[in-house]
Amino acid sequence: MAKTSQEALETFYPYRTNYFQSLGGDRVRHMSFSRSDYEREARKENALFVGSPQQIIDKLLYQYELFGHQRFIGQIDIGGLPFDRVAQAIELLGTEVAPVVRREMAKASHAQTLRPYEDSSTMQDTSLTPNTTDRPQAGEEPGKPLAPLWMFKVMNPVMKAPLRWPLPRLLDGTLVLLTYTGRKTGKQYTIPIGYFAWGEGELLSFSSARWWTNLRGGTPVTLLLKGRRVQAVPTVIEKREAVIDTLEEFIKRLGPRAARRLPIGLPRHREPTRDDLRNVPRGIALVHFQLA
Fold first, then answer.
1. 75 partner at 20 to 30 Å CA-CA among 34, 38, 89, 184?
2. What is the pLDDT of residue 283?
3. Rg of the chain in Å (alpha carbons)
4. What is the rounded CA–CA span in Å between residue 146 and residue 141?
5. What is the number of structural domains in the chain?
6. Are 174 and 63 in a shared domain?
7. Which domain holds residue 169?
8. Alpha-carbon distances, residue 51 vs 17, 35, 91, 178, 256 (angstroms)
9. Ranges 100-104, 229-233, 255-259, most confident
10. Is the pLDDT of residue 12 over 80?
């Protein structure tokens, strides 16, 4: 980070190149890391945090709007970056970036608490919404994860690819590709979701994202399950008591160990009680899929 974006890009480029060449040793010494690739990585929608304080603020808030994460970890002193540059980046982060990001996150959090829970799937804070015309409307794409799954949106394309590969499939029994139709746009979306075998011809999925709002009403969906496309009828379980009842049945059927895989804060060293289930965060849902 530097006072201007150009200064930041110019300063960090040789150290970024040095870092990867040192990391890769002889395997990458002959490779060139182009400036265009470097600048593309530093764009707001990509992962490399290089720029002015305002650019870093914009990028952090952009990712917060997408992922809802509460913690950011940045590695600053890589590739032999001089100490004075490291110190400057830390100072700018603490004095110019962090106060603004915390303030804007607090505003977004406060605005969310003022909205009715039932309407939260369709509301957005426009001050944090990325400027894009082809983005699905709120509630039609994976929303903010409740747990710290901040790489969800970034990893979707990575996770979708192996689910489409022929045998052997590493992720069978863990993930399935869900194809559904957005209830507002009528467009089709395909996302990877985790699932549990619930019974003969039945699957159960958990989510704190809001894609499940499109499945209300039981409109049939398509699942790519173990390399085979199947039709399924979804049932959304979202009422608070119904969620608690289903989680209780989940523990009975699949055991506490499987339940602890759900990012809902269940105790790690004992079997969860009904009171524990009543304390799980709001805004989650379970989806039951009956395979055709």
1. 34
2. 81
3. 22
4. 15
5. 2
6. no
7. 152-291
8. 17, 15, 14, 37, 46
9. 229-233
10. yes
CA distances from 235 to 88, 100, 171, 186 (A): 53, 42, 24, 20
Same domain for 205 and 85, yes or no, is no
What strand order describes the sheet that includes 228-237? 188-194, 175-181, 221-225, 228-237, 285-291, 202-207, 196-199
* Three-class SS of 269-281: CCCCCHHHHHCCC
Q: Can you give the length of the chain in residues?
A: 292
198 shares a domain with 86: no
The dihedral sign for the CA sequence 277, 156, 253, 258: negative
Q: Partners of 224 in the beta sheet?
A: 177, 229
The vertex-265 CA angle with 261 and 267, nearest 5°, equals: 85
How many C-beta neighbours within 10 Å does residue 195 have? 19
pLDDT digits (tens, 9 = 90+) for 152-203: 454 444 444 444 444 334 344 578 889 999 888 888 888 888 899 998 999 9
Q: Is 135 contained in some domain?
A: no
DSSP tag of 137: P
138: in domain = no
DSSP string, 176-187: EEEEEE-TTT--
How many angstroms separate the CA atoms of 146 and 92, rounded?
30
Let me know: does 175 contact 195? Beta carbons within 8 Å.
Answer: yes
Q: Is the pLDDT of residue 279 over 50?
A: yes
Nearest CA-CA partner of 150 in 279, 62, 260, 268: 62
Which of 245, 241, 244, 219 has its CA nearest to residue 232?
Answer: 219
Angle, CA 48 vertex, CA 162 and CA 85 arms, to 5° = 150
Query: Are 86 and 123 within one domain?
Result: yes
What percent helix, strand, coil does the chain show, rounded to 5?
Answer: 45, 15, 40
